[in-house]
Amino acid sequence: MSDEQLKERIKIEIPVEDENGHEGKQSEADLVEEMKKLGRQFAEAIRAAWNSQERQKIETDVREGLDVFVSELEKGFKELRDSQAAQKAKQEVSQVKEKVDAADLGRRTKSAVAEGLRWLGEEFSNLATQFTPVEKQPDSEEEA
């Protein structure tokens, strides 16, 4: 639909009072043109706000604040990483890992589970062979 067709569909009559208080009709006010004007004015207001010194100052403040925030986080993490408690925890984890590796617990557990599953499978197989298979019943049509 063209702009002209759209304009024709949207044109409306708006009642207007003259100086004497008599109501008349403004002929076919162009709603589309008013919407275009409003859009341009809104865009200009946004553009002016974006380019304003106030917005630039806020952006600078936010950037500086974020830089300080990140710096403080990094400082806190470094202190935590270097703390005596963190070193002790790291040492304890290392000792536990060494004990598990030395005992070879993981390998033995996997092997035992696999052996248990193999045994269970054999038992099911033995159980299945103990049942007598059902003999095939002759079809009723063959008997007739």
Notes on the protein architecture:
With 144 residues, the chain is mainly alpha-helical. The protein has six helices and two strands. It has helices at residues 3-10, 31-50, 53-82, 84-103, 105-129, 140-143; strands at 12-17, 23-29. It has a two-stranded antiparallel ribbon. The radius of gyration is 43 Å and the shape is flat. The two termini are 80 Å apart. The mean pLDDT is 78.
Measured distance between first and last alpha carbons: 80 Å
Number of helices: 6
- Strand tally is 2
Overall pLDDT: 78
> Judging from the principal axes of the Cα atoms, what is the shape?
flat
Strand order of the largest sheet: 1-2
Determine the structural class based on helices, strands and strand pairing. Answer: mainly alpha
Order of helices and strands: HEEHHHHH
Oligomer: single chain
Helix content: over 70%
Uncertain residue segments: none
